[in-house]
Design brief:
It contains 8 helices and 14 strands. It has 262 residues and is an alpha/beta fold.
Amino acid sequence: MSEKMLKKITVAKSAKGKREDSADLVAVERPLTLFVNDFELVTMICSPDAYLELAVGFLISEGMIGSFSDIQNYICQEEEGLIRFALKMEPEKRKESFLRRNLASCCGRGSANFYFINDAREMKPLENSPEVVLLKQIELLHEMEEAAEIFRKTGGVHNAALAGDSLIVRFEDIGRHNAVDKIIGYSCLHRISLQDKSLLLSGRISSEMVIKAARAGIPAIISRAAATDLAITMAEELNILLAGFVREGKATIYTQFSRVIM
């Protein structure tokens, strides 16, 4: 557990009309700014842990790189909250799409999904379609939650894990997207093949999660929460298995039913 992700504060708690002052732990959040080829791309708010994994996973999720070999060099300044990447190729098209999508979202306009759906339409369905043993995934999801120490102490973070026959790596972050990007970045940095792996989540399966999995090449997403309609549609088109409401030995299978071994 990273102590940097926790902060002790004094709080006043109320119970049955009575006040009691006590110490409590809260989740820490910090800004991380990414520069790509000397261009300030984005500032993300995240838990102060695994900055490089987060940044590399983010670049893969946004389609700006396909693998770590696309990075010429990088400088990670953790104390300053800065990471600078020099990419071998300038990702102008992807950068423009990313900026338009996020500008639209920030300004409250309705065009953000237009760019996002176009991103998905450019992607090809995953060719690998491994079977998934559902009871094993339920067991691993429970194992992920049991190991979620930051969540147990603060209730203020999300969980994500990469699973094969066992849990491979797990991250907690204040942002559910960040937790997934850390998984993808870690897999990239450690040259882990994702063609037969599952992405385990503590939160809902949204369309963004499906696109992240598709870009990384992960063929299955398993979560204890629900999936959205657009996530289900995209997953079916991209050949990704979705299972939600995984708890107490039960699950709801949304897509790719034939791949599930009950």
